[in-house]
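Quick question, first post here. What does this chain look like in 3D?
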Amino acid sequence: MEATVVIIGSGMAGSHLAFSLVQKGIDVIMLEAGPKRSRAENLKTFYENPVKGPQSPYPSQPYAPHPEDGKYNDFYVQGGPDQFIGAYLRLFGGTTWHWTGFADRLRPHDFKMKSTYGVSRDWPIDYDLLVPYYVEAEKRWGVAGDPDYPWGAPRDGAPYQMQPIPMSYMDQQVTKALDKLGLHSAPFSHARNSEIYDNRPVCCGNNTCVPICPIGAKYDASVHAQKAEDLGVRVETEALVTFIEVGANKKITRVKVRKPDGSEFWVSGKYFAVCCHAIENPRLLLNSAQETAPNGVANSSDAVGRNLLTQANQDSWGILDEPIFPYRGPQQTGGLVELRDGAFRSDYAAVGTSFMNDGWSGNSDATNLAKDLIKKGMFGQELAKTINDQISRHLRLNSSAEVLANWNNRVELADEKDSSGIPRPKVTFTLDDYTKKGLANALEVNRKIFAALGVNDMQTDTPYLSNAIIGGTTIMGSDPKTSVVSPDLATYDHDNLYIIGASTHVTTPVNAPSLTIAALAIRAADHMADALTK
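> Answer (accepted):
Ran it through. Tokens below.
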């Protein structure tokens, strides 16, 4: 196979890059390691799977495995001390199949953490540079939001495409408690429809956004992966890229692809883009060590795999005296305004606290309670009545904190191989005190919120690493000695190789990274097209 541009990965980065390039008349092949499955197939798998975690609708394939719920240590080799549980998919459309659907821009301060707060490092680009690409990405997705609550990112009058998703009854009851404390709530902006948009239906509140929207009201990258294919992008699924070949002139010449039956072939191109998320990106680059790239592709800086980013979570929960009726609407419709940005970030992490519409434990809430009650001998109508009574009064607040980049938090190749014959990812991660201090502060705020709601025995867990956010492993920067890609996302070592996705992000603040991934992919398409013209 051969194309002008070869894209590896069909998720948020790859799909928007492919869609942008094909609109410019550029010949594109998009290679996806996993299968192409319909929403109906994924939904059936979810219903039949007794596990209801984020990966549950999406079977891991032996020819291209990904992490599975409750089996993260079977996938990752843990280098310690903190357990890494990053979840991602190998599937047409990528990991956004099971994302929350938050449609937030990063804040201006998020790009300038070192300059503004004296911690972390600055991005080599700023907010203003990305604004037109944010606008384009929002139009592609369709975003439902309230212009009065842009979550710290100036919009300069740019409207959302749809009216906001209404805050739930539960949100409204929590807000009454916040009023007593001088705190504030606001509705989130969503990449889910509050009206018909792009022929996709209106959100009807199934409350299973993670792991799957059963009707397609929530945007996912399969939408633009399919649009790109419809416009002429050649898509090859079940095509695991195992090796990137570097020529004597340091240019990428071709990539090796393996099919499920073990057969292999090469794909040649003029330009290449690695868009397979923040674990597989460095894993592929490191696995491609060769005479012309002895430390791995794009790795003269030794930064490939380093600066691994995630977020850290902590849950607080309790049972109220009166029903607040969770399980209405999307899993998160509103959250706490405070603690997300401010001068305090010089000393401790920003934290985003969400009011969880999915009870204490998400899709397993009622199941877990039923098991406990059955063990106590309860059954029949008494069991059903007790479950309904308790679940209707369950409240959980989830606090998610930013994590600083650390050179020694990293992804490496382990000695043992996975079922596809590729070395397993070895992950070493240490949670920093900056993040722990931010979560400790948020925990005290949560305690006050529960007390204002009449709950004085709030329960909590210990901080744990997020499975939803992964970034930083091929970091962008202005210095080739400490970063992997330039501000244009072209690698410093190979001028015809781009890396796109959260792996290039310098920070992972509390606003979700997905919109920034799409915006940077659209911008990279412009840069790549200009390079091809020249």
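The first helix runs from residue 12 to 23.
The radius of gyration is 23 Å.
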